[in-house]
User: What shape does this take?
Amino acid sequence: MKIATTIPEVRAQVAAWKKEGLTVGLVPTMGYLHEGHASLVDKAVSLCDRVVASDFVNPTQFGPGEDLEAYPRDFDRDCALLEEHGCDLVFHPAVEEMYVPNAATFVEIQSDMPKQLCGQTRPTHFKGVCTVVSKLFNIVTPDKAFFGQKDAQQLAIIRRMVRELSYGIEIVGCPIVREADGLAKSSRNTYLDPAQRKAALVLSQAVFLGQRLVQEGERDARKLVSAMEAHIKGEPLARIDYVSAVDGVTMEPVERIEGDVLVAMAVYIGKTRLIDNFVVEESAL
Ligand code: AMP
Assistant: This one.
């Protein structure tokens, strides 16, 4: 596996592959990789001739007071995992390589979509995500790019950005990978002490509860959300940011569980903000 820290190195390698007629997949990450990231790499390896992973803690997607400095980093361990899963090139730029000084060009969806769900407490987050993903698309020019359903709003926003900015890139969504006890894998789980780790189970428990209620016929979004919230509120270490049922494409709140619906949540466990979700597909109703 090759390691590139500069944009020209990535461009040269991708150009060489394209000259050979090979297809290229991109897996954007912020590093501190786990099995969730590995599942994206596995999917990319299965669908593309060559796979590029980016490993970059993107400052523009963190707001003031968020965990940019504290965000866990272990590049050597990341490289071992990526290589083991068949990644061909890891792009690990410094901030200065990605952002020219005083950069003032951003990519932003100017609708309510990035203001819903996580956008309520992270108002500039998706502007940073769209900007860095656009830059990675311009640098790597992949045929396909792989994103986790774990960050469901991000996935929906990237799909819209790709459509509206005419990126000829196929976006592949990949299912949430969980710990054996249900907790969605996340680099931020490392912040949790043992009591908080136990408390964090309320997120996945609320997901499973919600899925069961929908299966049993609940179609009233407010009742569904209330039942999930009640479960989370039973855990003293948990503080709800939001639990919402929204349209799976637009992220607009829904009243009925009809069509493709995303039921998503963000919950603070201590200072750590964790997210989880499930999708109800129209065909399953
Ligand atoms: P991050 O490094 O947190 O920015 O995540 C990079 C990519 O990995 C994103 O597309 C995430 O949605 C995806 N991802 C993170 N955790 C998981 C997980 N538990 N299951 C599936 N995908 C994940």
